[in-house]
Amino acid sequence: KTTDPLEKVNNLFKLKKNKIYLANLTLSDFRKFRSLKVKFDKKLTVIIGSNGAGKTTIVDSISKALSWVGSTIVKKNGRGKPVTEQDVNIYSRTYSEANVQIKIGENSDYIASLRKTVKGAKETKNSDLEALEELGGLFRVINNYNITHEKLEINLPLFVSYSVNRTNIKSNKTFNIGKISSVSVGSRFDA
After folding, report:
1. Cα–Cα distance measured from residue 38 to residue 80, given in angstroms and rounded to the nearest whole number
2. Is 64 buried (19+), middle (13-18) or exposed (0-12) by CB count in 10 A?
3. Is 62 exposed, middle or buried (0-12, 13-18, 19+ CB in 10 A)?
4. Is the pLDDT reported for residue 187 higher than 80?
5. What burial letters (b/e) apply to 2-37, b meaning 16+ CB within 10 Å?
6. What is the pTM of this model?
7. What is the pLDDT of residues 166-181, one digit of tens each?
8. What's the helix, strand, coil split of the chain in %, to 5?
9. Residue 162, class by beta-carbon neighbours within 10 Å (0-12 exposed, 13-18 middle, 19+ buried)?
């Protein structure tokens, strides 16, 4: 048995029951969603939907939240990706919010909110990032401890996504509108 508190925390992460996972996501006036609540499976969640359904919005909101954990693992007071003007739903009168709950096992909750207040709103709502910064700091301290004591570092779960920026497609091809004689519309899946 060890008396070193960092060693005790480090050992807790090694237990299967104490795996880290994203438990919940709540979006409010975030891009296309006025309100969305998602509860994630502990092991694997796959998001499937038609074009324009909001898959990228969900993934981007998660990515923004996790960026605060990652940035504070790298260095204390690191900065992640904020909610921007482009993330605010066009009908919002108050603020846009991405709220996440990250769990380590069943007993440790890290809940945070990334927010952007709408221009002209009566009240300002700032982001509440303390839990994400705390989680990133915890991993930074434990991994530093493990490195200095010649132990294996703790790995974060894998989050994989790809995003397509549909509004900023650039091409070096040009065309003359006068030379187009007809337009044929096929399937939305035609490349």
Report:
1. 22
2. buried
3. buried
4. no
5. eeeeebeebeebeeeeeebbbbebbbbbbbebeebe
6. 0.76
7. 655 555 555 565 655 5
8. 30, 20, 45
9. exposed
